[in-house]
């Protein structure tokens, strides 16, 4: 796909093009409609931190901390490290933005409110896997200002095995159940399908198969990730728990005249976490074997 159209689709998934959910430092600043459009899991059902104990929400301020906009979903990958999509923290020239702009609500299945601001984590460093030179490398690590206690959240493990079209996978994030609808303040999840269709490479030449940096999904049911889900988890079950297969990057309608870039007739791409696990381990300064989940 052409670079500019790819960027537009990616930006729409973060809520940069769409309006999004805002929390205010001063609660009196909030209006009745502060919860505006930030569409998310299509055909999703409500879920919680019992299934997703690593779930996190990324917020940005554009006004020196007067308010924070929810922009992306994320995962706790280590006690002091967050995994999310690179485009969530990049400008239109693909340059990383300042870590000081971001806050994280970690281990909560509901979006933050003004009362949560003092409990949000700050970001001290952002590490990129090379997104500015290759859009397939749509992943970053955010280092937090302090470790997250296990009573708040527990890091997700990485799924290290081959990904096939028969692998049951699920995606989770925050938002509405239909494109363009109002935001949901609770975490949603939906079953999706891994695809090996020729459409996967037709719409993204960076995809050759699901063993590379990207996993492709085309869901006949219309179950899909969407705006606000970027950076959020695609998971599979292993040893009775959800482990990280990939993170939401972007999707595109296979009818290029249709601007609805999530849901039915869409092809979606997820950054395959195991492809980047050695890089993740090098940033965290740990053995990559400590990050993966091995089948019992």
TrEMBL record:
InterPro entries: Peptidase_S1, Peptidase_S1_PA, Peptidase_S1_PA_chymotrypsin, Peptidase_S1A, Trypsin_dom, TRYPSIN_HIS. Keywords: Disulfide bond, Signal. This is Elastase-1. GO terms for biological process: proteolysis. Pfam families: Trypsin (PF00089). Residues 41-285 form the Peptidase S1 domain. Belongs to the peptidase S1 family. Residues 1-19 form the signal peptide. One of its GO terms (molecular function) is serine-type endopeptidase activity. It comes from Smittium mucronatum. The keyword Zinc does not apply.
